[in-house]
Every structure is written in C-alpha cells, then in structure tokens.
Amino acid sequence: MANALQQLINGLGLGSVYGLIAIGYTMVYGIIGMINFAHGDIYMVSAFIAVTGFTLLAGLGVTSVPLGLLVVLVVSIALTAVYGWSVERTAYRPLRGAPRLAPLISAIGMSIFLQNMVQVTQGARVKPIPPMVTGATELLSLPDGTVSVANSQLLIIASTVVLMIGFTWLITRTSLGRQQRACEQDRTMAALLGINVDRTISLTFMMGAALAAVAGVLVTVHYGVVDFYIGFVVGIKAFTAAVLGGIGSLPGAMLGGLLIGL
Fold first, then answer.
1. CA separation, residue 144 to residues 5, 11, 80, 136, 261 (Å)
2. How far is residue 118's CA from residue 125's CA, in Å, rounded to a whole number?
3. What is the per-residue pLDDT for 174?
4. Which residues contact 191 (CB under 8 A, 6 or more apart)?
5. CA atoms within 13 A of residue 133's CA, in its CB half-sphere
6. Whole-number pLDDT of residue 95
7. Which of 8, 108, 126, 214 is the most buried (most CB within 10 A)?
8. Among 160, 144, 170, which residue's Cα sits nearest to residue 5?
9. What are the two backbone dihedrals, phi and then psi, of residue 190, each rounded to the nearest 5 degrees?
10. 98: three-class secondary structure by DSSP
11. What distance lies between CA 61 and its chain's CA centroid?
C-alpha cells in the first residue's frame, strides 16, 4: 500500500511536467492547426540553460537556493522564448500556406538541428549538477513503509498549478487571449478585424517555449542530470498527453499529462 501511494505521488510530479509541455503543444495546434515537433527539444535546451546557469552562479559564489532558482528561471524563460520565436520564424512562418506535410518535415528538421547543436556545443555526455532542493515531507506512516513527497516534487506540482491557473486566466480573460481565440477560429477574419496574426502566433510560440523552460528548470532541479536526447522522449510523451486530453484544450492537456505520468 505504501509503495502504491508513493508511486501515485511520483506520477503526479512527473505528470505535471508532461502537462506543462503538453500545454505548449496544444496552444500552437489551437491557433495554426500544426504540431510543433521541435517543442520537446526546446524543453531540452532550457534544461541545458538551467545547468549552465546553476554552474555559473555556483562559480560566482551564489549560495542562496531561492535566489539561484529565480535567476536561472528568469534567464531560462527569456532565452527559451527566443528559441521558440526563432522556430516559428524559420520553420513555420515561411511554410504557413504550404501543404501540411511541409511544416511537419520542417519542424522535425528543426528538432534534429537543436539536438545536434546541443550535442556539438555541450558534448554527448550527461551533465549533472548537485542537488538544489533537498529534503522531503512525510505524509503517512504505514506498516509496510512511509509515504513522503520530496520538496522538489512539491515545487513542481505547486508551480504547475499556478501556471495552469495563470494561463487559463490569460486565454479566457485578456486581450491577448481573445486575439489567440480569434486566430484559432478564423485567421483571415481576425486579420480583417485588426488583429496582428503574425505577432499573435509568434507570442503563442514564445509562451509555449516559456512553459517548456519552466519544466526544464524544474526537472533539472529534481533529477539533477540532463542530456541532449531528453527532449525527444519527453516531447513524444507530452504530445501523447495533449492528444489524450483533447488537443486544443489547456485543461485537457494537463489532465493528459497527469494520466501519462501516472
């Protein structure tokens, strides 16, 4: 019983990561109707940015974990959003009017490019960092063992809940969200009504990349090791989660991620 409950908690933590990445998939698909297969590798790039950031901060003598997490998270989100914007400008925008197979091949090519870029620049070996968030909270003590949740898992779950609420509010209550929903329904009519469709799509790619950046930092903090191939596996699982939850739906993407994690 204790082992089953422990695995349930582990599944929730892992599923939260899949859900964050799946939201990026579903946001892009909701607007342009295409799957960004380079999204998993954007997550991988953010993980390497996090490792580099933590290493540089340690070299500068920064010992405060909250400060280090905040700095690395902000830098990772900013740089990864630039990667998301670049993917949209180079792999998708020139092929927006082409048959659907063309941008699909372009996105897969971008995925291979990002993997090889990181492998060449960072090396093929795994990159470890010391544990950043340690400790655990004991939830239950049963005859066959104890059930606990690691503090890093609590950070992942809490961050996911906050981001899910925040992005749901952004999509449903803000001007940008209304523009995104208008582009989802009819991009031509949205443009006729004065919406900058190109800017809205670019911002959506950047928002999805920012979510992948948060997932990359949190996973790096929790597991403490990354390699250039993690984006492919996680990307496939997050894409499956998005489809399982009903691609185009933010709550569905999160639910699908939790189910895959469990």
1. 11, 20, 44, 19, 24
2. 11
3. 92
4. 197
5. 22
6. 87
7. 214
8. 144
9. -60, -40
10. coil
11. 29
